[in-house]
Amino acid sequence: MSFRTTPSVDYVEDVSPGSGALPPRAWYASSDARSLSLNGSWRFRLSATAGAEDDSFAEEGYDAGNWAEVTVPGHWVLQGDGAFGSPIYTNHLYPFPVDPPYVPTENPTGDHLRVFDLPSDWPSDGGAVLRFDGVESCARVWLNGTELGEFKGSRLAHEFAVGELLKPGSNVLAVRVHQWSAGSYLEDQDQWWLPGIFRDVTLLHRPAGSVADFFVHASYDHTTGEGTLRVDSDTEGRVLVPALDIDVATGEPVTVAVQPWTAETPKLYDGVLATDGERVPLRIGFRTVVLEDGLVKVNGTAVLFKGVNRHEWHPERGRALDLETMREDVLLMKRHNLNAVRTSHYPPHPAFLDLCDEYGLWVIDECDLETHGFTEQDWRDNPVDDDRWTPALLDRAARMVERDKNHPSIVFWSLGNEAGTGRGLTAMAEWIHGRDPERLVHYEGDWNCRDTDVYSRMYAFHDEVEKIGQQLDGGTHRRRELPFIQCEYAHAMGNGPGGLADYQELFEKYDRLQGGFVWEWIDHGVKHAELGYAYGGDFGEELHDGNFVCDGLVFPDRTPSPGLIEYKKVIEPVRIEGDGANGIVHVTNKQDFADLSALAFEWSCQVDGETVESGSLAVPALAPGESAEVKLPEPPADGRGGERQWTVRALLADDTSWAAKGHVVAWGQFAVGARPLPSFPATDRPVVEEGRITLGPAGFDARTGALLSIGGVAVGATPRLDVWRAPTDNDDGAEWQTDTRYGVLWRTLGLHRMRHRLVSVEAGDDALTVRTRVAPAAREVGLDTVYRWTSDGERLRLSVSVTPQGDWTVPLPRLGVRFGLPEADRVEWFGGGPGEAYPDTGTASMVGRWQSTVDRLQTPYVRPQENGARADVRWVELGGLRIEGDPEFWFTARRWTTEQLDAAQHRTDLAAGDTVWVNLDHGLHGIGSQSCGPGPLPQYFLKAEPAEFSFVFSTTR
Fold first, then answer.
1. Catalytic pick from 488, 541, 572, 888?
2. In angstroms, how far apart are the furthest CA atoms of the chain?
3. Which CA distances in Å does 437 have to 309, 401, 446?
4. pTM of the entire structure?
5. Which pLDDT tens digit goes with each residue over 98-150?
6. Cβ pair 889, 714 in contact under 8 A
7. CA 828 – CA 832 distance, rounded (Å)
8. Catalytic residue among 312, 418, 466, 566
9. Out of 193, 491, 746, 955, which could bridge 929 as a Cys pair, Cβ 3.0 to 4.6 Å?
10. What angle do CA 199, 325, 156 make, to 5 degrees?
């Protein structure tokens, strides 16, 4: 056997999908045939270029004793403490010159070696297959010195026949992995570039007569309640489904009464595909997907998708996910009322789809294809419109469809993402429609819907979405006949997304609008010893897109963000509304398939946020779409005369596979009467002596009017007008946005450096009045601000009057007062909670009595920004003070200033100071999702206009 000493690397830049791999086939997790996992520790050598080393490392007996080690599955750049290079993040720019199919000479190349023995009971007959479930981006493979082939298609399975090459001991598996290849031009997804063998490597015994490829066809007729099963198999055999008394030959259809599969009722029947050489377990879900009456229907019913886009991510292992991490994702989705997932932008690990089948999620399975970087040259030389690349595109489509075709959860095949348009995409769509006419085809880039079965868009603004729902959007005749989904919307980057409830209202109002998929599931932060979590640029990348990679509904450690809590509330499967004064609850089942028999309902009555009585509520098992009015009991007697409200919850009546009995699925709140506002007679008058003004329990500086203390509680910094917030990612928006980016304009106007000019301090008969003008340097606009302090002897009231001067052309970030306390930790409040809320993200804010600490009030966004505001606050207690609002207000409390928060780039940049800074806000500007979508809707703008608000201070000590 001979080896080249000057290796050929032409295959790296070959546009073909590769050579030597077996045709794609259906994936299954296990069978009674033997298998051997080759995951674990591999020997590893990194070279700077593709041709730096010859092929001799693949030869039996090669001494790799001085090589490093890496873990497979894994990415080498996330191992070795930086010795093997670093991750690179770009949104759409290729991190190499765009010169298809060529890639740089500097092409990190990892040689991997694994020496393994066969188990002593490994069968001696039959053949064997070596399967790679995912390698980025190009791999060349040898076993025992014989080259098996090479392949591209990072997130796709590839198998090689190796039966004749195996021996009982010391088998040498050698894999050369190149970071860059022609395939990289097809894999420009918005994520980290992470080379390596990042999914499982498995040796499969293939007995004589074993299962090859098979296709489970399991349709459901909603008019008869019957399902028809037919399993086509390359190897003849029998199909057994004991629960249905099915025992038929492969290829033979059988029709029986069944319970259908849906995401709400994921009924799976256990079966077996038995051939002479193998028994493969089947999990069969009966369902039919059609395009009918201009709608996507499953089992005869139109579906409303309440979905999310999911990249695979782990903060330490990158895209190398284990089964429990995948299960955690699915359980979190189910517990937060999601019913759909788009596998952006590649087929996931196949075990994830097993979980979607089991727990119930609709799936858009997306091909491993994106060429977004070609937009920089107006899509010139785009591979999807170049016939030389079409075989690679078809290979990717086939490997997705053939691997995943037996999953009932998949209702759409997606051609890819942001790859422009072209002949190659048409070829993919034609092949998929021919191979699997039982599912629909999706692709967002096809706005004319030439190749697709749904009109799909991303980040369409609310007004355009409504026009589409009203059929007023125009477009081709075919497009006008198709349903609409937002395959991406509500960009969940940092604080946000705002406007979710407004989108959902449209989705539920117009039949044509069949929902959407929030972008995206998880922040792709890389765990970092110094930074907490790293994002683009933190590894010294030449090109990067910063924290645009951190735009998920869960933080990198999978802690739900406020955005996910908000989304759960917005997409509740049960609407609970009420007339508190008359004790009437209106309940609507918003599910598509399931009735309400799985839920129990309970009521509780609160006075001033504290529950005084509770009980169960009898609600009929409403069918999908049905509503009912239910009478609440008489409210309990309470002599306190406080604010009263009802809360009604829908809970799981029993344990389910995805949550325990008592899990809250939906809730609603409604007031019994209006809140009594704080009563405050001004009885004390200011007393001036020795440079100090005393008013009731408070002391002021006579020269400046600054508040110094209240009843023995020192005030470190006096309350004064504050209009600045540390801009959120959505405030700053994306550079390519066409609508106004107010975060940028705020900073240009100078709202982050407002100056306060003292006009007068006036000690009157019943009040201390401080007049100021608050304005930015270099600008003529300003805010005339009057602070009026009064007291009833025990309490102190601050009334603030704000009058804008000049031509204010932008809304304000916030409007309220900020002050400092030298010490504070425990916080209690009556108002919205338990988490943060802003004008367009407050649907999930539940009014009640809440407790926290200052530290726990903070929302740990990967890039620090405005966070932590609690809404609709009646009163808050912290640092020895009780503060009541007239009207309700927002409050935040932090151990750093807004300016320090604004300057921070990572969580670790924030250090607690000696002062707790408290904001009491009369108003806040909305959040929106302008980091890649629309800004706040006009009704959530905080306009610069005259305002008056007040707070009553007292001590709790």
1. 488
2. 105
3. 24, 12, 19
4. 0.97
5. 999 999 999 999 999 999 999 999 999 999 999 999 999 999 999 999 999 99
6. no
7. 12
8. 418
9. 491
10. 25
